[in-house]
Amino acid sequence: MTTHDGTAAPGAEHGHVEIRPDGQHSGGFVFTMGLRRTGHGIHRAAALTVRVPRGVPGAVTAKALRAAPLDQLLAVAVSAASLGAGTAHYLDDHWTARPRGGSRAFSLLVARVYQDAVHRRLPPRHAVAAVWGRGTDCVDTWLAQARRQNVLGYDTLAGRPIRSSPPDLGGPPPAPRPAHALPSSQGRITSRGVWLRDLHGCPDWAFRIEPGRHRPPGLVTARGLVIEPDKTHAGGWNAVLTARTVTGMPLDDVLVRGLAAAQGNGYLMMARAMVGEPLRSRGHDHLRQVTDAYLFALDQGQPPLHLICALWPDVQYRTAASWTAKARRAGLLPDDVRWKPVGRGPWGLPPAASSGFRLSPAASHVRKKGAGGVEHAQAGPGNGCAPGGGV
Prior knowledge:
Blueprint: E1 2-4, E2 16-19, E3 30-37, E4 43-51, H1 62-67, H2 70-82, H3 85-93, H4 104-119, H5 124-132, H6 136-148, E5 186-190, E6 193-199, E7 202-214, E8 219-229, H7 234-237, H8 243-247, H9 251-262, H10 266-275, H11 284-299, H12 304-311, H13 317-329, E9 339-340, E10 358-359, E11 367-369, E12 375-377
Antiparallel strand pairs: 1-2, 2-3, 3-4, 4-8, 5-6, 6-7, 7-8, 9-10, 11-12
Helix pairs in contact: 2-3, 2-5, 4-5, 4-6, 5-6, 9-10, 11-12, 11-13, 12-13
């Protein structure tokens, strides 16, 4: 763990903390948390950079990032900057999540942060709230429980009035966004990676995807991901980062769009922009997204199931076929609108949009339905479920 001074990067105006993997944190990534100093003199995490160490195989994925112990990493970074390295190492060594109803082990962590904040003449309630990324009302409940368990006493500093001054973030904040304004979903390709900002669902944050090439040749993966506040928006000017904020971001959408832009795949970028963030819940809205992706692929002369597998991470070909069958039974996808490949292109892939495509009726001899209405391709020249098969 290394603490650095502030930089000009948004979200790291008052320093950043770098935490390298030591076998205790999942993913094997290097985490860098940008810090902002609040009006109470306490640091809060406001930016996050996740990178694969140089020379180490691997890639940054949304699934791996959500599985990382972000609450622990952010707590260690904030305590290192605000309370010192001793408190940060204590939290790292004795970390435990708060179970329902609380526990004595968790109360000991809260008491340690509280006592160190009092020692440094910082408002202890706000220090505990900053370390765990919670509100002061929630912290009051934790403190009351710690006192009932006799692990925390009372102090005179807690009753003193707290003076607060606005932090210096390098200029005046921008005007608030009008209520009727829609996100613009902007993207920009630079030598440092692909920038995405003003996305639907998180307009106050900007993302940079750092691509890298690995085997097989031509495959582009994300070797780094930068999340920082968008200071062009009033919401991003004072934004802080918590584990809940990160896990609630459309990370799958961000990585797919960024890697598609880095690889020059405009087809996949347009599809992602039209379909949006893939829903994890399986319902009517999910089937509507599947229908939109299917019809978009047909309009572009590309195999629809391949696009569905690309838009939804870790989805197999057979699962995508079952989704389209459910969309037809729900009446969202017309039964006579189907993909029928015309020959084969290079590397066994279907031809480009310029070669054209045909919409075959449901009774066509090329298509057959198996049990449960799942579509299967009939074996034959120019057809099949291998890459380029018709669906």
